[in-house]
Amino acid sequence: MNKKAQSSLEYITTYGWALILFIAVAAVIFFVLSPDTGEVRFRSDSTKFLVRGSDSDEGGFKVDIINATGRPITIDSITSPDFGVSSPQTGTTIPSGGTITITGTFPSGNIGGGSFTICYTGQEPGCVEITTGPNPTPKECPNSICAEGENCPADASACPEPSVCLAATCTNGCGTTPIAEGEEDREGDNQCHDNLGCDTAPCACNGMGACDSPASVCGNGVCEAGEDSSNCNEDCPIMLSSCGDPPGGWQPYTNYALGKDLTMEVGREEPCFEINQDGVTLNGMRRHISGPYTGTQPAAIIKLAKPSGKINDFLIQNCRIFGGQYGIFVDNPGDNIQVIGIHIEGCEKSGIYIDGGSNHRIGGNSVYFGNIPILVSGTNIRISSNVACATPGHTDISFSGSASPDSGNNRCRRCIGGSPVCEEGETCTYTCTYP
Predict the structure, then answer these.
(1) Residues 285 and 404 in one domain
(2) Do 125 and 254 have their domain in common?
(3) What φ, ψ does residue 279 adopt, rounded to 5°?
């Protein structure tokens, strides 16, 4: 070996270790003093919005968030004191269980902590804050703890119960996933039934974080899917399509409705309906019941009579009645007979006949022709906003007894030309006669 080569080898041996040590120290100093450019993660402390995952770099961030409110929502605003948020646009509608992706940018030189707030409208409007959190550290799985960023399905039971038809996963922390279509949600309080989804439990999920059908609400005036006269008679009355008793007879405190216009056969003497129970409600649905005007007339188009005792709590409304000796005849009335919004024509004797009882309400009816179109008596009777015109030479409205304070505004009219002889406020307030 020549002297030059030997000298080089000695140089490397002497100073090489020092060079390696210098490089190692410089690297440590660089990593200690340089800023953290690692990924920033986000979290939500609310169970209404669940962070499904997030990504970030020096240019900005992207956060996927699940709508876990249990209802569709519309984004009203997204604001942040720390970041520039660029999407989604306000007015975006997110279905129940749907995911929104929020993107934004970090301020120059800062990719550290901060938050943004989502405000939304819907059945229960509100606002939720999404904040940054520390990078997750490896967790033991399972350990009955679902830590932020942890992927451990075995720890999903440690997560708060999500909204109906979503299942906790412990994926990226307490994430959720929609329950599969056709499967049932029977966990915890947010089961898929009652006011949370459909009518009778158990109910199937639709695979998008909601129940398969909206809940029916008995008592809202609409006969909805899943309702019928047996489970919600209030909204779904028994429909009547012919004269006579309904199948099974009249039932006490039950709602009925005309399913079509009814015309009584010529020669029929019995009423179209003879109601013998308390608490019957009959909605005419603006349809009519017609009896013959000439020849043999039925005693009444609608008659209320019990085999024994007084009849109570009857309501008829929104109906047109033609012909008969009486339109509505109440035999032995008791308490609370209501005749509301009925148009009656051509009855030989009276359109409305209620002689006795108490607390009746006769309002908004028009009765044309007859010896006494409206005859009502009793105590504490509300008789208001009725119009009647008798066959010439007879009484239009005959009332005796005591009227409730809100009675009034009744009018008598000549059926054939001319002006009424008297109106409410004159000496014949409730009894109008033609000379």
Answers:
(1) yes
(2) no
(3) 75, 20
Q: How many domains does the chain have?
A: 2
Q: Which phi and psi (to 5°) does residue 340 adopt?
A: -130, 125
Domain carrying residue 108: 41-135
Question: Two tokens at 5?
Answer: 């080569």
Tell me, yes or no, whether 389 and 272 share the same domain.
yes
Identify residue 107 by its one-letter amino acid code. Answer: P
Which residues does 214 contact at the CB level (< 8 Å), separation at least 6?
A: 197, 198
Q: Report which of 410, 322, 329, 330 is spatially closest to residue 368, judged by C-alpha positions.
A: 322
Burial 134-150 (b: 16+ CB within 10 A, else e): eebeebeebeeebbbbb
At 228 the three-state DSSP class reads coil
Give CA–CA dist 229/299, Å, rounded.
31
Computed over its alpha carbons, how large is the radius of gyration of the chain?
Answer: 40
Q: Is residue 84 part of a domain?
A: yes
> What residue ranges in 9-48 does DSSP mark as E strands?
41-44
Tally helices (H) and strands (E) across the chain: 1, 27
Q: Is 434 inside any structural domain?
A: no
User: What tokens appear for 247 in the block?
Assistant: 């199948």
Residue 332 near residue 309 (C-beta atoms within 8 A): yes
Q: Does the residue 185 lie in any domain?
A: no
Shared domain for 103 and 252, answered yes or no, is: no
For the chain, which residues score pLDDT lower than 70?
1-48, 50, 52-54, 58-59, 70, 87, 108-113, 133-139, 148, 189-190, 193-202, 213-216, 293-297, 413-435
Residue 163, pLDDT score? 76
CA dihedral 20, 24, 25, 29 (to 10 degrees): 150
Q: Are the beta carbons of 227 and 199 closer than 8 angstroms?
A: yes
111 and 245 housed in the same domain: no
Number of C-alpha atoms within 13 angstroms, CB side, residue 246? 19
pLDDT digits (tens, 9 = 90+) for 57-101: 766 778 887 777 767 888 888 888 777 777 677 788 888 777 788
Other Cβ atoms less than 10 A from the Cβ of 321: the count is 27
Domain stops at, among 135, 168, 203: 135
In a domain, 368, yes or no: yes
Which pLDDT belongs to residue 273? Answer: 96
Q: What is the pLDDT of residue 259?
A: 94
The CATH code of the domain that includes 85 is 2.60.40.1230
